[in-house]
Amino acid sequence: MIIEEQRRPRYWLALCLLLLTIWTTAAAGSRMVFNFDHNLPPFRFDYDGFALFDSFFNPHALYTGLSFALPLILILLAHELGHYCACLYYQLDATLPYFLPVPTFIGTFGAFIRIRSIIYSRTVLFDVGVAGPIAGVVVLLPFLFFGTWLSHVAPGVATSGDLVFGTPLLIRFFEGIFFPGIPPDDIYLHPMARAAWVGIFATALNLLPIGQLDGGHIVYSLTGAWAKKISLVAIATLIPLGYFYPPWWGWAVVLYFFGRRHPQIFDESPLDRRRRLVAAVALLIFVLCFMTVPLRY
After folding, report:
1. In 3D, which of 144, 153, 147, 145 has the Cα closest to residue 185?
2. Cα angle 176, 179, 183; round to 5
3. Among 53, 80, 110, 252, which lies 20 to 30 A Cα-Cα from 101?
4. pLDDT at 242
5. Three-state secondary structure readout of the chain
6. CA 51, 30, 147, 180 torsion-angle sign
7. Beta-bridge partner residues of 59
8. Per-residue pLDDT tens digits for 199-220
9. Whole-angstrom distance, CA of residue 275 vs CA of residue 270
10. What are 117's strand-pairing partners?
């Protein structure tokens, strides 16, 4: 496939955003490590919310936070590089992965690439869409394994902070290996496993079968015109879920008004059997990663 001349990558911007995100995630991770080592609640707004500010006065703490920051960066980068490499394979014009550093409890809003080229076929759309989630999960699994192995039992501490993290099926599977019979509320996840948790949550969000999300691209590749109806059903499903986790209402509004469009496809040839099997794997990943209530306040 031949495309128009591509724009020069802005390496300086991608590098600056990456370095800033390493800083913000390491600052957040330093508090996670401190709390984990001292059996303190995983997150407290009155203290841990100032982690980035504290890093100016205690830069050494950033080093300890790398056990959270580096796994998280690698997981998010793998997801975006999955999309990016698929774009390179099909000679699509795409930007480098750009990270979004923010002073939140995890230090980032994730990463993204922008695809400038027209995507002509369902096959290309599917390959580009599914490459990110699969690459991200492949990279996060070793971190989840070793992070869960490094975790320990601390009765009640996981639910004692200002933020209580949900437990998706994928994490529960590994907890069952290392801590059989122990309820999830009594397992204190190591910051490395917490980085995997963030990657799992991001994967589940991206695999929602809605519009411009990865899951929306996969569903459009599989079903064509039916994808619009499926997107509306998925958005409508977020409304009752919002009674358990109010941020779902915000996602429903944003996705309804800004996230329902699909790339214009010219080649409507259906996907082959191998890609349909990969789509089934993506569905399994979504089921294992999705949490009705990702966080409790």
Report:
1. 153
2. 80
3. 252
4. 94
5. CCCCCCCCCCHHHHHHHHHHHHHHHHHHHHHHHHHHHCCCCCCCHHHHCCHHHHCCCCCHHHHHCHHHHHHHHHHHHHHHHHHHHHHHHCCCCECCCEEEECCCCCCEEEEECCECCCCCEHHHHHHHHHHHHHHHHHHHHHHHHHHHHCCEECCCHHHCCCCEECCCHHHHHHHHHHCCCCCHHHEECCHHHHHHHHHHHHHHHHCCCCCCCHHHHHHHHHHCCHHHHHHHHHHHHHHHHCCCCCHHHHHHHHHHHHCCCCCCCCECCCCCHHHHHHHHHHHHHHHHHCCCCCEEC
6. negative
7. none
8. 999 999 999 999 889 999 999 9
9. 10
10. none
In this prediction, residues 77-93 reach a mean pLDDT of 95
The pLDDT assigned to 4 comes to: 44
Instruction: For 256-273, give one letter per residue: b (16+ CB within 10 A) or e.
Output: beebbebbebeeeeebee
Domain residue ranges of the chain, discontinuous segments joined by +: 11-296
Per-residue pLDDT at 161 exceeds 90? no
* Average pLDDT, rounded, for the chain: 90
Q: What is the mean pLDDT of residues 10-38?
A: 92
Q: Report which residue type is found at 131.
A: A
Q: Are 255 and 235 in contact (CB under 8 A)?
A: yes
CA atoms of 155 and 38, how far apart (whole Å) = 14
223: which 2 tokens?
A: 């079903």
Structure tokens at 133: 């989630």
List pLDDT tens digits, range 258-292: 777 777 777 778 899 999 999 999 999 999 999 99
